[in-house]
Design goal:
Elements (H helix, E strand, L loop, with lengths): L16 H40 L2 H16 L1 H16 L3 H31 L1 H16 L2 H12 L3 H25 L3 H9 L4 H35 L7 H11 L2 H25 L15 H24 L1
Length: about 325
């Protein structure tokens, strides 16, 4: 036994937390490798579909589609901003890597939303579950993001799919927290009125709480998107491709040109995704008391069809 110094008791660590973690992880890898490999399949399916779709579609078609989406959800000015950012990404030669990064981010956000919103709803309805969940979310948000990489590599290997998994773990907390917060902030008298008029818990949730909490929930989704993009460079250390890999190679070779191109591409992709995701959080009041289908390209198409039908009715009435 080593000499114990009462005045300096922490000269050497006596709790081998690192060894315990390594042994525990080795046991989990040995016993549950097949389970963790099976977990990769749905993520791999979504990621492959998105990546093949984004990289296989001509860039002009992708820009046009994202312009129409941005115009519909966030307005014409944001639509033109999206076109400018995407055109600039193509101009600097980062289009292919940007589409890979976009596919990874979208896959991460899809799974974060599918997992995080139900967890947030359950946490809003159960104080006991919220008390258990909060320390876990605190742990996930405060632990250095590099630390995630080691267990993820041991459990899932390297590549884009493990990169998506580490991004999901890193970016899940905001959507859970803000879904919980948004539902808890819904005025109690509105919930009570729904219950008084015979609304079931499910109807109250779907028709009162979730619509009123939508701006807060979308803020959580927006934060998840931003954290996913921030993780793209760190995740490139486990062979995740895309813009993060360009930045990492640039740092490794001291190639300022490559690092700048990758970094600028990440910034531009962040602007595009941020502006579009913020648009999804707009309420009817934000759109000037109009429904979503009354604005943007869909609203323009509806007005065109209506005016054409009116002219046809007028011509029929005049001829008769």
């Amino acid at each position: 036994m080593e000499h114990f110094d009462l005045l300096n008791p922490f000269g050497t660590g006596f709790l081998p937390v690192g060894d315990w973690t390594e042994n525990g992880l080795q046991w989990v890898v040995g016993e549950f490798r097949d389970f963790f490999q099976a977990m990769k399949q749905p993520i791999n399916a979504v990621l492959t579909t998105l990546e093949q779709g984004l990289r296989g579609t001509p860039s002009t078609v992708t820009i046009a589609a994202l312009f129409l989406l941005a115009w519909q959800v966030a307005g014409l000015r944001i639509g033109f901003l999206v076109v400018f950012c995407l055109a600039l990404i193509g101009s600097i030669g980062a289009w292919g890597n940007a589409m890979t990064t976009l596919a990874i981010v979208l896959t991460s956000v899809i799974f974060c939303t599918a997992i995080g919103i139900p967890l947030g709803i359950f946490a809003a309805r159960s104080d006991a579950f919220n008390r258990v969940l909060r320390p876990a979310l605190d742990f996930m948000q405060t632990i250095p993001s590099f630390v995630y990489l080691v267990p993820i590599v041991m459990l899932f290997g390297i590549g884009n799919v493990p990169g998506v998994i580490v991004t999901i773990i890193y970016a899940l907390a905001p959507v859970v927290r803000l879904t919980n917060l948004g539902i808890r902030q819904v005025r109690y008298d509105l919930v009570e009125a729904s219950v008084a008029f015979g609304g079931s818990p499910r109807q109250t949730l779907m028709k009162v709480q979730l619509p009123l909490a939508l701006p807060t929930i979308m803020t959580g989704v927006n934060q998840t998107v931003m954290m996913s993009l921030a993780m793209s460079v760190i995740a490139s250390m486990i062979s995740v491709t895309g813009l993060g890999q360009m930045v990492l190679r640039g740092i490794g070779r001291l190639d300022i040109s490559l690092a700048t191109t990758g970094g600028l591409g990440i910034v531009l992709i962040a602007i595009v995704v941020d502006r579009i995701s913020q648009g999804f959080g707009q309420t009817r009041r934000d759109r000037g008391r109009r429904n979503w289908y009354e604005t943007g390209p869909v609203g323009l198409l509806r007005r065109f069809v209506k005016s054409k039908a009116l002219r046809k009715d007028s011509s029929v009435a005049a001829s008769s």
